[in-house]
Amino acid sequence: MTRRVWLAGNALLAAVCTSCARSERAYDYGEAKQRYQLHGKILRLRPENRIAVIEHEKIEGWMEAMTMEFPVPSLAEYSKLKEGMVIRATVNVNDSYFWLTEIVIEKI
Protein backbone atom coordinates (compact mmCIF):
# COMPACT_ATOMS: atom_id res chain seq x y z
CA MET A 1 0.00 0.00 0.00
CA THR A 2 2.80 2.45 0.91
CA ARG A 3 4.51 1.86 -2.39
CA ARG A 4 1.29 2.63 -4.31
CA VAL A 5 0.85 5.89 -2.42
CA TRP A 6 4.47 6.80 -3.11
CA LEU A 7 4.11 6.02 -6.84
CA ALA A 8 0.85 7.96 -7.09
CA GLY A 9 2.41 10.94 -5.30
CA ASN A 10 5.41 10.95 -7.63
CA ALA A 11 3.18 10.66 -10.72
CA LEU A 12 1.11 13.61 -9.52
CA LEU A 13 4.24 15.66 -8.80
CA ALA A 14 5.63 14.90 -12.27
CA ALA A 15 2.35 15.95 -13.91
CA VAL A 16 2.27 19.23 -11.97
CA CYS A 17 5.91 20.02 -12.80
CA THR A 18 5.35 19.28 -16.48
CA SER A 19 2.29 21.51 -16.53
CA CYS A 20 4.20 24.39 -14.91
CA ALA A 21 7.07 24.05 -17.36
CA ARG A 22 4.68 24.32 -20.31
CA SER A 23 3.04 27.52 -19.09
CA GLU A 24 6.25 29.56 -19.45
CA ARG A 25 7.84 28.56 -22.74
CA ALA A 26 11.35 29.86 -23.23
CA TYR A 27 11.96 31.94 -26.33
CA ASP A 28 15.64 32.50 -27.02
CA TYR A 29 16.47 34.24 -30.28
CA GLY A 30 20.13 34.80 -29.45
CA GLU A 31 21.95 38.12 -29.50
CA ALA A 32 20.73 41.01 -31.61
CA LYS A 33 23.19 42.26 -34.23
CA GLN A 34 21.03 45.25 -35.18
CA ARG A 35 18.26 47.21 -33.46
CA TYR A 36 15.61 49.35 -35.13
CA GLN A 37 12.72 51.47 -33.89
CA LEU A 38 9.18 50.38 -34.76
CA HIS A 39 5.98 52.44 -34.60
CA GLY A 40 2.70 50.73 -35.40
CA LYS A 41 -0.75 49.43 -34.51
CA ILE A 42 -1.48 45.95 -33.20
CA LEU A 43 -4.05 44.31 -35.46
CA ARG A 44 -4.10 40.79 -33.98
CA LEU A 45 -2.50 38.79 -31.20
CA ARG A 46 -1.63 35.09 -31.39
CA PRO A 47 -1.00 34.08 -27.76
CA GLU A 48 -0.15 30.44 -28.54
CA ASN A 49 3.15 31.66 -30.03
CA ARG A 50 3.38 35.14 -28.48
CA ILE A 51 3.03 36.80 -31.89
CA ALA A 52 1.76 40.35 -32.48
CA VAL A 53 0.52 41.19 -35.98
CA ILE A 54 1.47 44.84 -36.44
CA GLU A 55 0.74 47.36 -39.16
CA HIS A 56 3.92 49.42 -38.93
CA GLU A 57 5.41 52.52 -40.47
CA LYS A 58 8.69 52.40 -42.38
CA ILE A 59 11.46 51.02 -40.18
CA GLU A 60 14.44 53.21 -41.08
CA GLY A 61 17.37 51.19 -42.33
CA TRP A 62 15.47 47.90 -42.40
CA MET A 63 12.12 47.77 -44.24
CA GLU A 64 9.23 49.67 -45.76
CA ALA A 65 5.84 50.11 -44.08
CA MET A 66 3.76 46.92 -44.06
CA THR A 67 1.80 44.53 -41.87
CA MET A 68 3.71 41.59 -40.44
CA GLU A 69 4.03 39.21 -37.50
CA PHE A 70 6.50 39.99 -34.72
CA PRO A 71 7.46 37.57 -31.95
CA VAL A 72 7.45 39.02 -28.41
CA PRO A 73 9.60 36.69 -26.27
CA SER A 74 8.89 38.36 -22.91
CA LEU A 75 5.67 37.10 -21.33
CA ALA A 76 5.47 40.29 -19.24
CA GLU A 77 5.66 42.50 -22.33
CA TYR A 78 3.29 40.32 -24.37
CA SER A 79 0.70 40.25 -21.57
CA LYS A 80 0.22 44.02 -21.64
CA LEU A 81 -0.62 44.08 -25.36
CA LYS A 82 -4.17 44.42 -26.73
CA GLU A 83 -5.51 44.60 -30.26
CA GLY A 84 -5.90 48.18 -31.45
CA MET A 85 -3.05 49.58 -29.34
CA VAL A 86 -0.50 51.88 -30.96
CA ILE A 87 3.03 51.04 -29.79
CA ARG A 88 6.68 51.89 -30.13
CA ALA A 89 9.19 49.08 -29.75
CA THR A 90 12.70 47.96 -30.55
CA VAL A 91 13.04 45.38 -33.32
CA ASN A 92 16.03 43.16 -32.58
CA VAL A 93 17.56 41.40 -35.60
CA ASN A 94 20.26 38.78 -36.05
CA ASP A 95 21.14 36.41 -38.91
CA SER A 96 18.22 34.06 -38.14
CA TYR A 97 15.50 35.93 -36.25
CA PHE A 98 13.77 39.20 -35.46
CA TRP A 99 11.74 40.00 -32.31
CA LEU A 100 10.33 42.89 -30.27
CA THR A 101 11.52 44.27 -26.95
CA GLU A 102 11.20 47.55 -25.03
CA ILE A 103 7.52 47.93 -25.96
CA VAL A 104 5.92 51.26 -25.05
CA ILE A 105 2.16 51.69 -25.38
CA GLU A 106 1.26 55.05 -26.93
CA LYS A 107 -2.47 54.71 -27.43
CA ILE A 108 -5.06 52.22 -26.25
CATH architectural label: Beta Barrel
Widest sheet, order of strands = 3-2-1-4-5
- Poorly predicted regions are 16-22
Q: What is the chain-wise order of helices and strands? A: HEEEHEE
At the fourth level of CATH, the homologous superfamily is Copper binding periplasmic protein CusF
- Share of helix, binned: 25-40%
Question: What is the C-alpha radius of gyration, as a whole number of Å?
Answer: 19 Å
The first-level CATH class name: Mainly Beta
Tally of extended strands? 5
- Report the span from N to C terminus: 59 Å
Q: Can you tell me the CATH topology?
A: OB fold (Dihydrolipoamide Acetyltransferase, E2P)
Strand percentage: 35-45%
Coarse morphology = globular
Structural class: alpha+beta
- Look at the structure and give the mean pLDDT: 86
Domain count: 1
The largest sheet is: 5 strands, antiparallel
Number of discrete helical segments: 2
